[in-house]
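Raw record, unedited: Pirin family protein
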Amino acid sequence: MANAVKKIFPLGFPWQTQDPFLFCVYHLDHYPKGNKDMTPAASLEGRSLGNDFVIKDGWRMYHGQTIPGFPSHPHRGFETITIVNKGFCDHSDSLGAAGRFGEGDVQWMTAGRGVQHSEMFPLLKTEEENTLELFQIWLNLPKKSKYVEPHFAMLWHEDIPIIKTDNACVKVIAGSYQNTEAPKPAPDSWAADVENEVAIWNIDVNANVNYTLPKANTEVSRTLYFYEGSDIEIDGNSIQPNYGIELHPFENIDIKVGNKSAHFLLLQGKPIAEPVVQHGPFVMNTQDEIRATMKDYGLTQFGGWPWQHADNVHEREKGRFAKYPNGTLVEKE
């Protein structure tokens, strides 16, 4: 293996990404016990409610005023992929879709021409802490797909393949790993074309072992995020947790793991290679399109908000479920 590593960089908030990805953030919040109304059973004094991104007592409220999370906000021109490893997320949107997902579930939403949604983190456990571990990834849409119809899908953890070996466990959220295919992505996604070789893998490797990350087949952008563990070694580089590694795609990557298990997120894909103009939650190709988007949102609110509250949460007793815009309801145990 020669020149496997292109670049090593510290992980900020959010994480640095490469085309076709726009954004990736890792949330790890050790929320306290919840009250019966799913609010924290702890004082909110001293927090900048509505804009609370500083970890205090091990957790953040984000934009939530009573329940942590992100009340209604718009998107256009890209997709959100939300991976909830621990805890739960309540989704509501302007299409009338809704869901509660977590403990390994993934939500894939194509914003396309425009959608509003909220993502709240209800604290369902009243007798113990409510730890939340969540990734949110923004995957760009090419110019031809910026105005497609919005799409909402739930990838239940029971349906997401997990490849287990003696040394590692790989959750295949997008793409293919060792000839095992992930669930189908959204139909208008950049990931829907296999030639774009989009991959999203959550990789857990045991302590004190060597693990080989298989090479890609095409010239893709490839970033490995080392977010938990002690230390690893790649191509002679000693790397601590909370670092990202940009990799050459045509090399198998040998990873030597230290005395704690190592946890990684891999993002990979063929670059879209088009201009990116972003204004907050809107991602287009030109400034004129951004101005048009802001005007559209001002006039239409992307269909309005059909829920009583901007920070809508579902009934506490509700289990995992997805309600689709056409009224189809899927309920899980």
